[in-house]
Amino acid sequence: xxxxxxxxxxxxxxxxxxxxxxxxxxxxxxxxxxxxxxESAKVIRRAxxxxxxxxxxxxxxxxxxxxxxxxxxxGRDGVPVYVGDKEVLQAITxxxxxxxxxxxxxxxxxxxxxxxxxTARRVVVxxxxxxxxxxxxVFRSGAALGLDAVLVTPRCADPxxxxxxxxxxxxxxxxxxxxxxxxxxxxxxxxxxxxxxASLALSTDAVSLDQLAADPPERLALVVGTEGDGxxxxxxxxxxxxxxxxxxxGVDSLNVAAASAVAFWALRQKSHL
Length: 273
Prior knowledge:
Number of strands: 12
Strand order of the largest sheet: 8-7-6-11-9-12-10
Shape: elongated
Helix content: 25-40%
Distance between the termini: 45 Å
Largest sheet: 7 strands, parallel
CATH class of the largest domain: Alpha Beta
Number of helices: 11
Strand content: 15-25%
Structural class: alpha/beta
Number of domains: 2
CATH architecture of the largest domain: 3-Layer(aba) Sandwich
Order of helices and strands: EHEHEHEHEHEHEHEHEEHEHEH
Radius of gyration: 21 Å
CATH topology of the largest domain: Alpha/beta knot
CATH superfamily of the largest domain: SPOUT methyltransferase, trefoil knot domain
């Protein structure tokens, strides 16, 4: 029997789910222990479809029927399912678990960025984007608009943090991604792989997104920067060109996730949509 009742928030069997609101704890434990957390039935199903392996599930008892297929598969594979009252679940996770279930999943092995580039035509590089919501939103728009891969720099937030996964609606499992290091020292590697590397930024020598979209390169890597400061000067100098989105209404720029979505749409590969 794989369904186990939990009545004590300190139960060691559910230690993976404890203190999810403590950012420092997540940063310290998730990468080191090889675990990430998938929240909601839709996200969990997408993770499973991508071949990721569950460690356990945590849910309110009333969701056992709605998620009976997951529970049945867990029983077949020997994966424990923990259930509890909403007060206990909230004490464990630090928030109201209203999306059905949360799963502790084994992290997949890191991917080689150069391998991702072999067949890619459109990629985005996230330079030091530290907001998990923005990371998840970039993945979601990238999946919707035919992006082939996402590369994240060493200081960028982890796409497999719970909030990034949730905001992406599980598309972090759909769009291949890898960390690229060093950065911007790896810009030449992108160029040697045949990519035109374009930074999305405000600059006096920037070309309009309309201009680039009118005659886009066969292989394009779009680099977007962190919230607030934008791209580093060294990155701008290393890239082949700077691109800006034409603005009206006295607005000079968009949020990084919104700007990325606009650029993905303008530069999309028509054959992918």
